Amino acid sequence: MQPRSMLPLLQSVQVALIASPLWYPIAVSIVFNVPHHHIDVFVQPFFLLTVTLAVLTGFGLRFMKRWSWHSLCALQVSFFYTHLCLMTQYSDSHHKLVSFCMAVALQTLFFERFLHVFRVPYFFPKTFWWEMQPRPELGTCEIAINDRFFSASIIDIASVGCFVKTKETFQLGQSVVLNGDILGMTFKVPGTIVWCAGNSVTYPRGIGIRFVRSAAQRRRLKQVTNLVRSIRKILAVRSSLPEAEFHARLQALRS
Predict the structure, then answer these.
(1) Cβ neighbours of residue 1 under 8 Å, at least 6 residues apart?
(2) pTM exceeds 0.70 for this model
(3) Before 25, cis peptide (omega within 30)?
(4) pLDDT digit string, tens, across residues 20-68
(5) Which residues, at least 6 apart from 20, have a Cβ–Cβ distance to it below 8 Å?
(6) How many secondary structure helices (H) and strands (E) does the chain include?
(7) How far apart are CA 182 and CA 189, in angstroms?
(8) How many CB atoms lie within 10 A of CB 78?
């Protein structure tokens, strides 16, 4: 089930990936200056695989499928290999390396932006299987929906949304109001539920909420995310700190 509203950037990515068989061959022909006698590159297996994977990923993102995140990661590798093949075997440009570096830079910039904006709350919160212990809760919150209130724990948060741990059952597309508290910094922001997650190795049972923010709420959420970054820096070195110093550093953030 797709959320009722979607960020324009995500919609643009969906459309671009689904339409990649139309624009991608033209784009790489221009960037890498592929001559006419090498037009057969567009029916080579590596190129067809990349375009097919792009279309599949676009449809996965369109319907917010969990596997589309992994497909997007695989697509970045496929794009890199395709651009490498174009540079070494098919390009007639005198600046092959420049073209390749430009393509990789644009690809990296896109993926980093997408990672920052859409990983939370649409895909995966930062609780990875290789961590020695589950990521600690960042704070507490109260979810208000239809004059009912539910307590939950904030596991991950970004400026556009958050992931909260809760045992309650919610529906995709429901409008909620989140009252959060992270080390004494409180915030209140409305949002829409875009992900209902069950227990998993990589994330706990909970919901992903995309915020619907005013200008004042954006400023407040920026303060919250800055605080969260400071908390994570302390948590990253917790094992090397005496218990008293660890709590003292957290207390300093609270003040």
Answers:
(1) 63, 64, 172, 173
(2) no
(3) no
(4) 999 999 999 999 999 988 888 999 999 999 999 999 999 988 877 778 8
(5) 51, 54, 55, 58
(6) 7, 6
(7) 14
(8) 20
Q: How many CB atoms lie within 10 A of CB 236?
A: 9
Pairing of strands 139-145, 148-157: antiparallel
Q: How far apart are CA 19 and CA 229, in angstroms?
A: 37
Q: In angstroms, rounded to a whole number, what is the distance separating the alpha carbons of residues 224 and 139?
A: 11
69: left (phi over 0), alpha (psi -120 to 50) or beta: alpha
State which amino acid sits at residue 202. T
For the chain, which domains are there? 8-122 (no CATH), 139-254 (2.40.10.220)
Helix (H) or strand (E) holding 119: helix 96-122
What is the C-alpha to C-alpha distance for residues 142 and 39, in angstroms, rounded to an integer?
58
Question: Which tokens is 186 given?
Answer: 């409180």
> SS3 letters for 123-162?
CCCCCCCCCCCCCCCCEEEEEEECCEEEEEEEEEECCCEE
Task: State the Cα–Cα distance between residues 152 and 191, nearest whole angstrom.
Answer: 15
Tell me if 32 sits within 8 A of 96, measured CB to CB. yes
* Residue bearing tokens 């915030």: 187
* Max Cα distance, the chain (Å): 70
- Evaluate whether 180 touches 139 at the Cβ level (below 8 Å): yes
